[in-house]
Amino acid sequence: YHLYVSTAGSDSNAGSISKPFRTINKAASVAKPSTTVHVAPGTYNGNVTTRNHGTATARIRYVSDTKWGAKIVGTGTEGMWTNNANYIDIVGFDIAGSGRMGIVNWASNTLVQGNHIHNLTISGGCNGGGGAGVVNANYSGSNGDVIGNVVHDIGKPGACNGVQGIYSSNRGGKILNNVVYRASA
After folding, report:
1. Which DSSP string corresponds to 52-63?
2. How far is CA 12 from the centre of its chain?
3. Which residue in 16, 83, 23 sits closest to 51, CA to CA?
4. Residue 38, Cβ neighbours under 10 Å: how many?
5. Is 165 helix (H, G, I), strand (E, B) or coil?
6. What would the pLDDT profile of 70-109 be if each residue is shown by its tens digit?
7. What's the rounded Cα separation, in Å, for the pair 90 and 37?
8. Which is more confidently placed, 159 or 150?
9. Residue 26: which H helix or E strand, with range?
10. What's the rounded Cα separation, in Å, for the pair 73 and 80?
11. Is 30 helix (H, G, I), strand (E, B) or coil?
């Protein structure tokens, strides 16, 4: 299954290539196992939340059709993209905003790959909740892979030892070939 998102789309559309959705959140609300959500280049203001689960044999993939071309600019003090679903891939996005987390993952069997996560201003301040460019936040979760991302300018260097570039609480998973610089911790 394929769904399409474009800044020129509308959430009242069918999500087809000729009638794309306007928001990733709309596509996420109707995605089912084996869906690939194709996101066209452009700036998408607002936070993304993914809740629908894939399966071990039928993952749900969110893909920026042009690497770093789909730019997510989130607001608030928490995650710019919050994933609550198992068997999800988030691939090739540019993510920035005011929060303390670029991508926060609360699920298992996930892949965060090839994203550019940067310029998180940590507007909620330095607190016990910490933060990071990518966070596998569920201590009961497992197999959160974080591969080939570029993560930088996460808070102000030296300002908060609880804000990292990448932080993983999951059991298992792979954290490979990421580039991290100018993170607070």
Report:
1. ---BTTB-EEEE
2. 24
3. 83
4. 19
5. strand
6. 999 999 988 999 999 999 999 999 999 999 999 999 999 9
7. 10
8. 150
9. helix 24-30
10. 7
11. helix
Q: Take residue 29 and report the two structure tokens written for it.
A: 């609300």
3-state percent breakdown (helix, strand, coil) of the chain, nearest 5 = 5, 45, 50
Give the start-end residues of each E strand in 2-122: 2-5, 36-39, 42-45, 48-50, 60-64, 70-74, 79-83, 88-91, 94-97, 101-105, 110-113, 116-120
> 12-28 pLDDT, tens per residue?
999 999 999 999 999 99
Q: Is the dihedral of CA 148, 41, 36, 87 positive or negative?
A: positive
Distances (CA, A) of 148 to 77, 93, 114, 122, 180: 25, 12, 5, 23, 10
Strand order in the sheet with 48-50: 48-50, 79-83, 101-105, 131-136, 163-168
Is the overall model pTM greater than 0.90, yes or no?
A: yes
Sheet with 110-113, side-by-side order of all strands: 2-5, 36-39, 60-64, 88-91, 110-113, 144-147, 175-176
What is the distance between the alpha carbons of residues 57 and 171, in angstroms, rounded to a whole number? Answer: 21
Residue 150 is encoded by which pair of tokens? 């570029």
